[in-house]
C-alpha cells in the first residue's frame, strides 16, 4: 500500500485530508552566485513560516508539498525544522532546476551519477537530515518553447530511471505543452510511465494541451490559484473542462505560495497558503460539488506523490 513520505515520517491516505501539492516553505530566488540559502538559520525561517503553517492548518490543510529543488536553494533541514516545530508534515523533493540555474556539479555529473544521487535521496536520506525525498522535481527553460537543453535532458533521463526503480513521481516546472510531450517521450524511452509525471504550471499554456497531456496519463497541475491575476473564473472553467473530458483523476490544484526567501531582508513578504481553501474551494464546490472537490484536493495529490 502506498504511503506519503514526509518530514514527519510516512502517512497513510486515511491520515490526511486536504493536501497542497505545490507550495514553498523555503526558496532562494536571488542570484545563485550569492548562495544566500547556505547561511539561512532554520530558527529564523521558523519564526516567519510557522505562523503561515498554523494559518494553513486552521483553514483545513493537512500537508503540503515543498517544490524547491537544487538550483533554487533547497534546504531540507529547514523544511524539517519548520515541520517539527509545527507538527505539520511537509513533502520534500530531490531533483534539479532549469537552465540557467543548473548547478555546476550537476552539469559535470554523468547520467549514472545523477541517477545514483537521486536514488540515495529517495531511499536513504537527503544529506544528513534524516528525511527521505518523496518525489523528483525537474524543470525546463521558461524562455525556450522548443525543447530540452542537453543538461535538462540528462537530468530527466536520470530522473526517469530513478523513478522507475523507486516509484517516485517526477514533477516538472514546464511552461510549454509541446515540451511536456517531449518530456513524456523521454521518460517512457527510459523505462518509466507517463502516469507518474506531473506537469507543474500547466495553466501557463492553452487548455488543449492539458487534455492532450492527461490523455497520455500524466497529471496536470493548476498551481497559481490566488496568484497576481486572481482569475478564479478561468481556473473554474479549466477545471470543469477537464472534468467534462473525464480527466478528473489527473488534476491537481495548488497555489505556489509561501515562502521564506533568504535573498530578501527577513525572508521577504510571505503569501499565505490559505487562498485555495478559504476563497477558491467554496466557489469550486458550488460548481462541481463536495465529492469532486475532495477527490481533487485529497485523493489526487495523495495518489500523485505517494509511493
Number of strands: 11
Low-confidence stretches: none
Averaged pLDDT: 97
Estimate the helix proportion, in percent: 40-55%
Could you please describe the fold and organization of this structure?
This protein has helices spanning 42-58, 76-86, 104-108, 111-123, 150-166, 177-189, 207-215, 232-244, 275-288, 290-305; strands spanning 4-6, 9-11, 18-23, 61-66, 90-91, 93-95, 135-139, 170-173, 197-200, 219-222, 251-253. With 307 residues, the protein is α/β, with parallel strands linked by helices. It has a 6-stranded parallel beta sheet. Strands 3-4-5 form a 3-stranded parallel beta sheet. Helix 9 (275-288) packs across helix 10 (290-305). The radius of gyration is 18 Å and the shape is globular. The N and C termini lie close together (8 Å). The mean pLDDT is 97.
Amino acid at each position: 500500500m502506498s504511503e506519503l513520505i514526509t518530514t514527519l515520517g510516512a502517512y497513510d491516505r486515511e491520515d490526511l485530508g486536504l493536501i497542497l501539492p505545490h507550495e514553498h516553505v523555503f526558496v532562494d530566488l536571488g542570484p545563485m552566485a550569492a548562495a544566500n540559502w547556505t547561511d539561512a538559520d532554520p530558527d529564523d525561517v521558523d519564526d516567519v513560516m510557522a505562523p503561515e503553517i498554523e494559518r494553513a492548518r486552521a483553514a483545513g490543510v493537512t500537508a503540503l508539498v515543498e517544490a524547491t529543488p537544487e538550483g533554487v536553494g533547497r534546504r531540507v533541514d529547514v523544511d524539517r525544522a519548520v515541520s517539527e516545530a509545527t507538527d505539520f508534515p511537509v513533502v520534500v523533493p530531490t531533483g534539479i532546476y532549469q537552465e540557467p540555474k543548473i548547478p555546476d556539479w550537476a552539469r559535470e555529473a554523468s547520467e549514472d551519477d545523477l541517477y545514483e544521487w537521486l536514488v540515495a535521496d529517495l531511499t536513504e536520506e537527503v544529506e544528513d537530515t534524516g528525511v527521505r525525498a518523496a518525489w523528483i522535481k525537474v524543470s525546463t527553460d521558461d524562455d525556450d518553447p522548443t525543447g530540452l537543453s542537453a543538461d535538462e535532458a540528462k537530468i530527466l533521463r536520470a530522473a526517469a530511471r530513478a523513478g522507475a526503480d523507486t516509484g517516485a513521481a517526477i514533477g516538472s516546472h514546464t511552461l510549454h505543452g509541446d515540451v511536456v510531450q517531449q518530456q513524456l517521450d523521454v521518460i517512457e524511452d527510459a523505462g518509466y510511465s507517463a502516469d507518474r509525471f506531473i506537469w507543474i504550471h500547466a495553466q501557463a499554456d492553452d487548455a488543449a494541451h492539458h487534455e492532450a497531456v492527461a490523455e497520455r496519463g500524466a497529471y496536470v497541475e493548476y498551481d497559481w490559484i490566488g496568484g497576481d491575476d486572481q482569475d478564479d473564473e478561468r481556473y473554474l472553467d479549466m477545471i470543469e473542462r477537464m472534468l467534462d473530458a473525464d480527466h478528473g483523476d489527473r488534476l491537481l490544484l495548488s497555489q505556489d505560495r509561501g515562502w521564506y526567501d533568504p535573498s530578501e531582508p527577513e525572508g521577504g513578504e510571505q503569501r499565505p497558503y490559505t487562498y485555495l481553501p478559504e476563497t477558491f474551494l467554496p466557489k469550486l464546490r458550488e460548481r462541481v460539488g463536495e465529492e469532486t472537490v475532495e477527490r481533487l484536493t485529497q485523493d489526487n495529490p495523495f495518489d500523485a506523490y505517494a509511493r
